[in-house]
Design brief:
FAD, alpha/beta, binds flavin-adenine dinucleotide, FAD/NAD(P)-binding domain, 2 domains, globular, about 375 residues, FAD/NAD-bd_sf
Length: about 375
């Protein structure tokens, strides 16, 4: 029987599995997802005070749709022989979807780097909340005032003192000027001190040294900068982008028998942009890549990846949230309205469980429905 193999159990891998099962219908086709953990980790929710809630059992998604789960790490992809090596065992495939995601890049050569905390993985987030749980008045240094750094800094500010450090001269540099005023106001409101044009040069027991010479007290130093796609991408292409991603065509194909999805894929969003390493793109990329991998074997027409509108939604803790639209990130909602939208999005990213019809219907609806908000109708300022 023909075999679709998917590497990765994140958003892209899970939705690839559902996409492949959707294309399979009643046909004979074996689908296997390989990932080491028993859970899909909802990484966008790892800044929350209870990261333990940010996970869904893979079994509850894969079993109802007839997808096997092999709990293993893939070390090798041999595209010539069409096999992957997982847990020391060779597994043959007819079509492969690489959805092995991304990882935070930890700084090399930083003294005390082993003391850094992060919220990149469930284990990382558990370690941080484990340290600070039940403590009032702790101090934390957050390195990086980008999307993740802002969310964890504003979350930590609920019960502690937070110093936010960034090499850039502005906060939220990667988000552009669109939401900057609202971000700065939120940091102000929460009493978060910003040290811009600065970085951390040493992490010690209870302190961090900054590049301006300051020694700041810190119960935890949280690193949030630098994401890179899985190393497995190197085994698919010699032409990776600066994030280590594999270039794919509009059907998300990288090689005749290999599709790539999620944070590992460099897919075009439009003529100017490639997709972001974000679950809002990993989810539809997965749905299309998995569908196409199966459709290709079954002689069914393939689907093009045609992204929905680009939005961002940032949780700013006690200062609410910000919801933006477009690549210029126009602020459509802020404060309590922005926070309400973020809450809805954080629920919407949970895949349906235990119900094949619901899972397959969701795989067929490639894009999340955007939350309604009145200012959506207003022309851009
Ligand atoms: C703190 C944080 C906040 C975020 N907030 C947002 C947000 O608000 N909005 C948004 O859109 N995005 C957000 N993101 C980004 C989003 O989480 C990622 O884009 C998304 O998780 C990517 O999904 P993925 O499936 O491609 O990869 P991943 O989530 O990285 O999953 C990869 C999977 O592959 C498995 N894997 C890796 N290597 C191997 C291997 N060798 N063998 C087998 N399995 C392997 C892993 O175990 C995992 O199951 C956030 C990320 C973080 C860390």
């Amino acid at each position: 029987m023909a075999h679709v193999v998917i590497i990765g159990g994140g958003f892209a891998g899970v939705w690839s599995a559902a996409g492949a099962a959707l294309a399979r219908g009643e046909a004979d086709l074996r689908i296997t997802l390989i990932a080491p953990d028993e859970h899909l980790v909802l990484r966008p929710r790892l800044y929350e005070p209870e990261p333990e809630l940010a996970k869904v059992e893979l079994r509850r998604i894969l079993e109802p749709i007839g997808v096997e789960h092999l709990r293993a790490w893939v070390s090798t992809i041999d595209t010539g022989r069409r096999v992957v090596v997982a847990g020391g065992e060779e597994i043959g495939y007819d079509r492969l979807v690489l959805a092995a995601g991304s990882k935070l890049v930890r700084p090399s050569g930083l003294p005390g780097a082993e003391r850094l905390f992060d919220i990149d993985t469930l284990d990382g987030a558990r370690r941080l909340t484990g340290l600070l749980r039940d403590r009032e008045d702790y101090s934390a240094v957050v390195v990086g005032a980008g999307f993740t750094g802002l969310e964890i800094a504003t979350a930590l500010a609920a019960r502690g003192r937070v110093l936010l450090v960034d090499r850039s001269e502005v906060v939220g540099g990667e988000l552009g000027p669109g939401p900057r005023k609202e971000i700065e106001a939120a940091l102000d409101e929460l009493g978060i001190e910003c040290r811009l044009g600065t970085t951390v040069t040493e992490v010690g027991d209870g302190y961090a040294v900054l590049s301006d010479g300051t020694k700041a007290g810190a119960d935890a130093v949280v690193w949030s900068v630098g994401m890179r796609a899985s190393e497995l991408t190197r085994q698919i292409s010699g032409e990776l982008d600066h994030l280590g991603r594999v270039p794919v065509d509009r059907r998300l194909r990288a090689l005749p028998e290999v599709f790539v999805a999620g944070d590992a894929a460099m897919a075009a969003f439009d003529d100017e942009h490639t997709v972001m390493q974000a679950c809002q793109h990993a989810t539809p990329l997965g749905k299309v890549a998995g569908y196409n991998a199966a459709a290709d074997l079954l002689g069914v027409p393939l689907r093009d990846f045609t992204p929905g509108p680009y939005v961002t939604c940032l949780d700013l803790g006690g200062a609410g949230g910000i919801f933006t639209r477009g690549w210029d990130r126009r602020v459509m909602a802020s404060g309590a309205d922005g926070a309400a939208i973020k809450k809805r999005i954080n629920q919407q990213i949970h895949p349906p469980v235990d119900d094949a019809a619901k899972i397959l219907a969701a795989a067929d609806r490639v894009y999340l429905e955007l939350p309604f908000f009145p200012r959506d109708e207003e022309p851009a300022a």
